[in-house]
Design a protein that fits this description.
The chain is globular, with a radius of gyration of 25 Å. Helix 9 packs parallel to helix 14. It contains 25 helices and 27 strands.
C-alpha cells in the first residue's frame, strides 16, 4: 500500500503537520504523522488524527448548488461548475456596472493559503474590499508592534533563559510548539504566565499572574514601574533609541503598584516578582497570542503597553529575546523570499476607492493593513456610506464570527448577491444564493512555508470528493469568467507558483521532486540589533513609546490604561456582576471547525460554561446544571462546568459553537476604537440556574 506525502492544514499557519497518507483504490484509509517533518516529527493532534472523518464528513459540500426562491427556503438545486461560475460572473459584472466594483466584497475566512490570490482577484476586479478574519485575529497585535517598533519579532525560544508568556496557551492552539517548550522547561528556562485562567501553560509556569480580564495594560504598566524604579531597564537603549520615555515615567509615577493591584487583582508583590524575574534574567523573550490581549475595548493600547517590555529591558532583536526575521510568505519566516506583495497588489490602494472601515478605523486601515475591516462591513451595509455594498463573495465565511452575529446576518441578507465556498454545508451556507464545494489539503495542490526554514509543495493524494475543487482553482476560474485570465497566468497554477517563488529561485517542478518537503537552501540571513544600522522603521526612527501616528490621529500617544466600556469597575455591576471571557479555543476544535467530526465532537458534547465554585454556590448551581448566561443584549442556555481554573467573578466560554452562539450576547459595535477588534473577553454578564 503506497504512502503519499502531504500535510494537515486544519490548524493555524505555524503548526501544520506533515502527514503520511495511505490510499487504497483512490480512497484515503489511514493517516499518520510524518517522522521526517520538522513541524511535528511524527506526531499528530486529535484533529489531524481525525482526518478521515474530516475528509468524508456527512455534510461535505459535493456540488455547486444554487438556491431557488427565498434565502433560507432550502430549495437547493445542483448545477454544473460552468453554470455556477457563469452566474457569479454575470451577477458581479452587472453589479459592478451599476454600482461600481467597490460594491463587491471578497472575503477569506479559514484556511489562509489562497489569500494572496483572492486579494489579487478583488483588486483586479477593481474592488478595494478584500477582507479576512484577520479583522478579529492577529492583525491588531501586528499593528501595535508596527506603531511601536515598525515591526516586531517572535520569541527566540532556543536561546532564551526566561519566557514571559502573555495569555497564550500553545498546548491548545499550537500543539507542535509544546515539545520545544517542555524541553526548555527541563533545561531550566524560567516561565512567567499572564492569563486570567489556570491554563495548561500556566500550570507549568514558575509564576502565574492571574489577572482580571481586560486589565493587561495596567499589569504591564505596573511591571514597567518596577523596571524603572529599580533601574532594571536598559538605560543605553532607552537614551539612544526611544521616543517618549520621559512621558512614560511621568505617567507611571501617577500609578503606583497599589493601583495596578486594584485594577488587575494581582498582588503587587507578584507584579514586582514578575518584573524582576523578566528584567534580571538575560536574555528574556515575550510570547503573546494572536488576539487574547486585543479582544477588549482597550485591547490595542493594552497590547502596546505589553510590547514596551522587550525594548525597555534590552531584549528586542537580540539572541534569545524577540528576534526580528523577515516575513517571507503568509505570516511565516521561512527564509525563502517571495513575490507575495506583488501577487497580492496588482493595483496600489491609492488607485482604488477607500476600503470598508477606512473612515472609522484609519490607523488599522490606512497605515498598516492592506485590506478592508470586516467588523465595519455590517455598518456600511446598513448606512450605504460612503458607498453602497451589494455583493459578498466568501471563502470560508462564518457569519457567527461577528459580535452581534444576528446583526451581521441581517445585514448580509440585505445584499443583492451572496456566494460562499466551503468544505461543508454550514449554517452560513444555507443563507447564500450560491455555494461552491472546496477541497481539503488531501485533494489539492498547496504551497506551504514553515518558520523552521522548510518548504513543501503538495500534490493531491486522492481525487476531490465528488465535484469539490481547490480554492485556488476556483479563484483562477472566477478570474477567467470575469475576463481577468491575463492576471492569473491564463489558468496555469504552476506558472503562478514559479512567479511567487522566483526571488528564491524555486520552481513548482523542482519543489514537486521533494514531496516530503525540503529545507530552504541559502535562507535569508537576519542579524541582530538591525536598528543600529538603519534605525527603526517608525516616523521618528526610534522605538515609539509615544506613537507619532496615534498622536497625529487624535488618540493617546502613550499606552494609557482605560477600563473597558462594560467593565465591572466602569459601571454599576449589580445586575450583571460577572465578567464574561470568551473567544478562546479548545484543543479538539479550531474556531468553528471540527464540530462536525465525531472523534472531536465526542470530547466536548455539551456547551460548557466554566465558572468558579464560589460563584456557583452563591447561585445554587451544581456541577452540570443547565444555566442561563445573560448580558444586556440577550441570553443563551449552557451547562455549568465548575472549575478552579477561572477566577471568582469571571466566567469563561469557548467560542465556535453554532448553537448556542455566544456572540449573540455581544453588541455589534462593542469594538476597540483604534483596532476595531471586538470586546469578546471583558463583558459584564449574569448566570442564573434554569428553572
Amino acid at each position: 500500500m503506497p504512502i503519499l506525502k502531504t500535510f494537515c492544514s486544519i490548524c493555524n499557519p505555524h503548526s501544520h503537520c506533515g502527514i503520511n497518507a495511505r490510499v487504497e483504490n483512490g480512497r484515503l484509509i489511514e493517516v499518520e504523522g510524518m517522522l521526517e517533518h520538522p513541524a511535528n516529527e511524527g506526531t499528530l493532534c486529535v484533529k489531524g488524527a481525525a482526518s478521515l472523518q474530516y475528509v468524508y464528513a456527512k455534510n461535505r459540500l459535493k456540488y455547486p448548488m444554487i438556491q431557488r426562491g427565498e434565502r433560507g427556503s432550502k430549495n437547493w438545486e445542483r448545477i454544473s461548475w460552468e453554470e455556477a461560475l457563469s452566474v457569479i460572473a454575470s451577477r458581479l459584472i452587472e453589479i459592478r456596472d451599476q454600482y461600481g466594483p467597490e460594491s463587491v466584497i471578497f472575503f477569506a475566512g479559514y484556511p489562509k493559503w489562497f489569500r494572496p490570490f483572492l486579494q489579487r482577484l478583488a483588486h483586479g476586479f477593481g474592488s478595494p474590499n478584500y477582507a479576512t478574519e484577520s479583522s478579529v485575529c492577529s492583525s491588531s497585535p501586528t499593528v501595535a508592534g508596527k506603531l511601536t517598533y515598525g515591526y516586531f519579532g517572535r520569541p527566540d525560544l532556543p536561546k532564551t533563559r526566561c519566557l514571559l508568556n502573555w495569555s497564550s496557551n500553545p498546548f491548545y492552539t499550537n500543539s507542535t510548539l509544546t515539545r520545544s517548550l517542555l524541553d526548555l522547561r527541563e533545561k531550566g528556562v524560567k516561565f512567567i504566565s499572564v492569563d486570567p485562567r489556570l491554563s495548561s501553560f500556566a500550570e507549568k509556569a514558575d509564576l502565574h499572574l492571574q489577572l482580571r480580564p481586560g486589565t493587561d495594560g495596567a499589569l504591564a504598566l505596573g511591571m514597567i514601574r518596577v523596571l524603572i524604579e529599580e533601574k532594571l531597564y536598559d538605560r543605553d537603549f532607552v537614551e539612544k533609541w526611544t521616543l517618549g520615555f520621559d512621558e512614560l515615567v511621568d505617567y507611571i509615577e501617577e500609578h503606583p503598584l497599589e493601583w495596578a493591584e486594584k485594577m488587575t487583582g494581582v498582588q503587587k508583590e507578584k507584579i514586582r516578582e514578575a518584573a524582576r524575574l523578566y528584567g534580571m534574567t538575560k536574555p528574556a523573550a515575550l510570547m503573546t497570542s494572536a488576539s487574547s490581549t486585543t479582544h477588549h475595548l482597550n485591547g490595542f493600547q493594552n497590547h502596546r503597553a505589553i510590547l514596551l517590555l522587550p525594548g525597555l529591558t534590552g531584549n528586542f532583536d537580540i539572541p534569545g529575546g524577540n528576534w526580528v526575521e523577515p516575513i517571507t510568505y503568509l505570516y511565516t519566516t521561512s527564509g525563502a523570499p517571495t513575490n507575495e506583495e506583488k501577487i497580492r497588489l496588482v493595483k496600489t490602494l491609492k488607485e482604488l476607492p477607500p476600503r470598508i472601515g477606512e473612515d472609522r478605523f484609519p490607523i488599522w486601515c490606512r497605515y498598516y493593513t492592506p485590506e478592508a475591516h470586516s467588523m465595519a462591513i455590517p455598518f456600511q451595509i446598513k448606512s450605504g456610506k460612503p458607498y453602497p455594498l451589494k455583493a459578498f463573495i466568501g471563502f470560508g465565511l462564518n457569519y457567527r464570527m461577528w459580535p452581534g452575529s444576528d446583526f451581521f446576518k441581517e445585514s448580509l441578507l440585505s445584499l443583492d448577491f451572496l456566494v460562499n465556498t466551503d468544505l461543508f454545508f454550514t449554517d452560513t451556507c444555507q443563507w447564500m444564493d450560491l455555494v461552491l464545494p472546496a477541497a481539503t489539503s488531501f485533494e489539492r495542490t498547496e504551497l506551504k512555508h514553515w518558520n523552521s526554514k522548510y518548504l513543501m509543495l503538495t500534490s493531491p493524494v486522492i481525487n476531490p470528493v465528488e465535484k469539490s475543487r481547490s480554492d485556488l482553482e476556483i479563484i483562477f476560474d472566477m478570474a477567467r469568467h470575469l475576463g481577468l485570465e491575463n492576471l492569473f497566468w491564463n489558468g496555469n497554477v504552476d506558472a503562478a507558483i514559479d512567479e511567487l517563488m522566483a526571488p528564491s529561485n524555486y520552481t513548482a517542478e523542482e519543489l514537486r521532486k521533494c514531496p516530503e518537503g525540503t529545507y530552504v537552501r541559502n535562507p535569508l540571513k537576519s542579524g541582530y540589533k538591525k536598528y543600529e544600522k538603519s534605525g527603526f522603521p517608525t516616523p521618528s526612527g526610534k522605538m515609539e513609546i509615544t506613537s507619532t501616528i496615534l498622536r497625529e490621529a487624535g488618540f493617546d500617544a502613550l499606552p494609557i490604561y482605560r477600563e473597558p466600556r462594560h467593565s465591572s469597575l466602569s459601571k454599576d455591576p449589580s445586575n450583571y456582576p460577572l465578567i464574561l471571557n470568551t473567544g478562546s479555543r479548545l484543543p479538539m476544535f479550531i474556531h468553528s471547525e471540527m464540530h462536525n467530526v465525531p472523534w472531536c465532537e465526542e470530547l466536548r458534547k455539551d456547551p460548557l460554561l466554566d465558572m468558579n465554585p464560589s460563584d456557583a454556590s452563591e447561585r445554587d448551581i451544581g456541577p452540570d446544571d443547565w444555566v442561563w448566561l445573560e448580558t444586556p443584549r440577550g441570553k443563551i442556555r449552557v451547562k455549568a462546568n465548575l472549575t478552579e481554573t477561572v477566577l471568582p467573578g469571571v466566567v469563561h466560554m469557548a467560542h465556535g459553537l453554532q448553537e448556542p452562539d455566544v456572540n449573540l450576547l455581544i453588541e455589534p459595535d462593542y469594538l476597540d476604537p483604534i483596532s476595531g477588534f471586538p470586546g469578546f473577553k471583558s463583558l459584564r454578564c449574569q448566570v442564573t440556574k434554569v428553572d
